[in-house]
Amino acid sequence: MNFRDEPDFEVIDLRTGLPDERVYTHADERRQRRRQLSGAISVLVVVIALVLPFVTVPGFVATVRQALRLPAPGPSPTLTPGADVVYFEHGLSWGVLLMDGKRITNTDTSQAYTGLEELYTSLRIPGGRHRLEYRAAPFPTIDCWLSAPPAASDTCPLASDPRQRDVQPPLPSERVIDLGGSPAHLSPALRSALEAAVAHVLAQLSTSTTLTPGDAFATADGTPAVATSAMAATLSYALATNPNDGYTIPGSLRACGVLCTSQPASYISDLRAEWVIAAHVIPTWTYTRDNGATTIRGNASPRGVSPDSIVPLSVRWDGAWRVRIADAEATSPICFIALNLFAALHLTGAPLASLRLYSAPTPADGCVAAGAAVDATGTPRIPFTVLYRFGLLFAVDDEAHQLLPGMQSADARLQGLARAWSS
User: Fold this and answer.
1) pTM of full prediction above 0.85
2) Neighbours of 283 (CB within 10 A)
3) What are phi and psi of 344, to 5 degrees?
4) Nearest to 277 by CA among 237, 239, 323
5) Theoretical Cys-Cys bridge with 233: which of 211, 324, 356, 401, CB 3.0 to 4.6 Å?
6) Which residues, in sequence order, are bridge partners of residue 380?
7) Are 299 and 285 in contact (CB under 8 A)?
C-alpha cells in the first residue's frame, strides 16, 4: 500500500471493539470518484478541441440538424409597431412599479405623445416575458406577466375597451394597463371609510349669505321666485348615496355614481402629484326668514336642469384617508355648479375651455363665468359674462343673452356684483 494511502489512525466500533471497515471503504470510494471525474474532464476537453473548428464552418450546424432530422428554427417574431409599448392608467402618486424586480421611475418611461395629453405615462418594454409588480397600499397589489410581443400567457390587467378607458394610445397595438387606483377597486370597508371622510369634508363647505327683498331664487322644483323679505341663504353639499344613479361629468361619456376618478392619472412614483377623484354631490339651498320660523328649501339649478354636480378632491393615504378640496383653478365648489349648469344648457358657440370662473368673496353669494363665444370662423372672440346666484343663471351682458335667450337678464345691481367679483 502506498504510504499516503495508509491511514494514520484507526476507528474502533464501540459495540464490538473491532476496527470499523466502513471508514476505509469510503476512503477508497472517494479516490475512485476523483479518478473518474478527472478522466471525464480530460475527454470533454478533447471533444471541444476537435468539434470547435467545425462549428465555425458555414453550414455545419444546418448539416448536423438535417442529419439528425431536427426541425429548422422558426424566424424571430416581427414586432407590430407599438407592440412593445404599454401605457398606464389609474396610477397613484405613492405607487411603486417593478419590472423583473427593478423599480421603474419616471426617468425610465417614454412619452410617445406630444406632451399635451395630461398625465399619460408610457413604457417601452424589452422583448420577451417580464414580471410586473405594482404596490400602492391600501389598494390590492398587482403581480402579473407581460410579454413583447403580447402572449396568451400574459396576465396583466388591461383596459381594453376604448370607450371605458381614460388613456387613448395613438397606435392600436399599444396596450393600456389598469393599475387599479380608483375607488371602485377598494374593498367595501375601505371605500366606506373614504366616503365617510369625503362626506365630512363636504359638510364643511356649507356657506351662508343674505337674500335681500327683490332677489330672485330657485324654489324646490327650480321655478324662479322673488324674495319678499330678507332671508338667510345657505348652500350645502351632500354626497350622493346611490351608486346606480350616476351623474355624467361634462365632457365625459361616463357617469359618476358616488366617487370616481376624474383624471387619467398614470404617473409612477411621483409624490409631487396628487390622486384627484370626483365626488358626486347634491347641492341644495335653504332659505330661512329672519325670525327663524319659516324655512324654504331651494334648488341649486333652474327648472328642468339637474342640480347634481361634482366636487374634485385630493386624496392621500397614510394609514387613514386624508381628503381636501382640489381646485386647480382657485375657485370654490359653487363655481363647479355654475360650470355644470353652463354645460347642461348647451350654450351654442360657447366652448367650456374658454370659461374663466370667479367665486364671490362669500361663496354662497354666487359665481361669475366669463368666456368667449366663437365667431363665424370658429374662433372664440365674442366675450360674454354669466352670473350664477341662488340656483339661477343671469345674463350679465347682451352677448350672454344672445347665447341663451331664455336666460334672465341681470339688473344693474347684479351687473355690478359680477364686475366686482371678476375684477
Assistant:
1) no
2) 24
3) -65, -30
4) 323
5) 211
6) 374
7) yes
Distance CA 102, CA 97 (A): 8
Question: Could you tell me which residues come within 8 angstroms of residue 380 by beta carbon, excluding any fewer than 6 positions away?
Answer: 351, 354, 371, 372, 373, 374
Cα 209 to Cα 287: distance, rounded to the nearest angstrom: 10
**CB–CB of 170/113 below 8 Å?**
yes
Report CA-CA distances (Å) from 62 to 48, 168, 398.
19, 47, 85
CA distances from 31 to 6, 9, 25, 36 (A): 13, 18, 10, 9
Type of residue at 417? L
Q: What is the layout of strands, in order, in the sheet containing 367-374?
A: 356-359, 367-374, 380-389, 392-395, 408-409
Q: What is the mean pLDDT of residues 80-100?
A: 87
Span 386-402, pLDDT tens digits: 999 999 999 999 888 87
Burial class (CB in 10 A: 0-12, 13-18, 19+), 117: middle
* The length of the chain, given as a count of residues: 423
CB neighbour class for 1 (10 Å; exposed up to 12, middle 13-18, buried from 19): exposed
Digit-coded pLDDT (tens) for 274-305:
788 989 999 999 999 877 777 889 999 988 88
Mean pLDDT, range 331-347, rounded to an integer = 77
Strand partners, 1: none
At 75 the pLDDT is 53
State the average pLDDT over residues 112-141: 76
Residue given cell 357617469 in the structure block: 255
**Res 331: pLDDT:** 58
Distance CA 388, CA 392 (A): 6
Nearest to 240 by CA among 289, 190, 307: 307
